[in-house]
Amino acid sequence: MPKVSFIKIVFFYPILVYQNCMDTRSADCYNNDWSNKVGDCAGNIFLGPFTLNETISRQFDNVRGARFGFNFTIAKIDSWDPNDFLIVFADEIEIGKFWYTPADGVDMCYVQYLDLFAEKQIKFNFPEGRSSMKITLDGNFDEPLSNEGWGAKRFILQILQPCVAFYSDCNFQGEVWTICSGNQTNHARDIPFEFKSILIENGIQVKMRDPRYYGGQTQTYTSSQYCLSSYQFPKYKQNA
Ligand SMILES: [Ca+2]
Ligand SMILES: [Ca+2]
Ligand SMILES: [Ca+2]
């Protein structure tokens, strides 16, 4: 057995984190985390309508990535105004802003003003040090629901550039050290502390070996490790 230590991570991506309310009348559109308000536009259900400065949001925990994709279908109900928009946030970061013109849409439902469903695909970078995000849809209309409203459905969250997070304490606590797809060669040379827990998304393999641990055998982890007994690399050497 060669006397080397290494960490090697095999990333498979994109990783699907979440999808919800995908079909015309999906049962999971009802009473989910975004909103318990469900509208129906000519048989197509959606979350909403919401208006003025109402928001809907959902918290995602234990997600690690440097880059994400968020897709959803926006519904614009009963508006032909040029000054109304919807902003999408990931935590405090604005990741999308959507405006429509008075000519967008056709009247399909509710009162006689224009309605529209449109798919949106957002790709965005996210700070590597975070392990959760709150996605918020913030609708900006200046008139009440009797006049206009926003809705949304077909939510998909994917990790486009996944990361693995190593922690100095059990249960993902303490200091954090991150390796992301695309940067592992640079980062794996300087391991800063003993690992007590590792956050690993589905589909990622983390391989570690050190002559002093587990008889020098390679350990392969394919799911999160909540409390490792001990794994402190003295120094990194390139995989032999
Ligand atoms: Ca209006
Ligand atoms: Ca309408
Ligand atoms: Ca308006």
UniProtKB/TrEMBL annotation:
Keywords: Signal. Residues 1-19 form the signal peptide. It comes from the Eukaryota. InterPro entries: G_crystallin-like. This is Uncharacterized protein. It comes from Paramecium tetraurelia. The lineage of its organism: Eukaryota, Sar, Alveolata, Ciliophora, Intramacronucleata.
